[in-house]
Amino acid sequence: MRSTPGNRIDASIMEVFVLRIQSVFAARQAVREIQQLYEMKDEVLPEFQYILDQPIETVLQLKANLMRCWINTYQSILTKRSYNTALTAD
């Protein structure tokens, strides 16, 4: 198919559309992950409870990339069960 100005515009519109769809899916995935972390609140070590003291609504209002940063920052801390896990596995 020959490239015409109309085709280039259509391709550009399609690229923008695809990027927006990917952004929506990324945001939805981040929301699900944050909700899962907040659901684990009772299992979080006491010294890390302060992380979840911030209302979930506040975290969910962040842009998708910032929600992903929040997840990347706190997920491993919040899912840690105990400092001594490796030592008590004997």
Walk me through the structure:
The chain is an all-alpha fold. It has one domain (5-89). It has helices at 5-39, 56-60, 64-79.
Strand content: under 5%
Query: How many DSSP helices?
Result: 3
Annotation, overall tally of beta strands: 0
Radius of gyration: 20 Å
So what's the overall shape? Answer: rod-shaped
Q: Report helical residue fraction.
A: 55-70%
Give the low-pLDDT segments: none
Structural class: mainly alpha
Characterize the largest beta sheet: strand count, sense, and whether it forms a barrel: none
Distance between the termini: 66 Å
On the 0 to 100 scale, the average pLDDT is 85
Number of domains: 1
What is the string of SSEs from the N terminus onward?
HHH
Identify the notable features of this structure and list them briefly.
90 residues, 3 helices, rod-shaped
Question: Quick recap of the structure?
Answer:
The protein is mainly alpha-helical and 90 residues long. 62% of the residues lie in helices and 0% in strands.
Please specify the SSE layout and strand pairing.
Elements: H1 5-39, H2 56-60, H3 64-79
Helix pairs in contact: 1-3
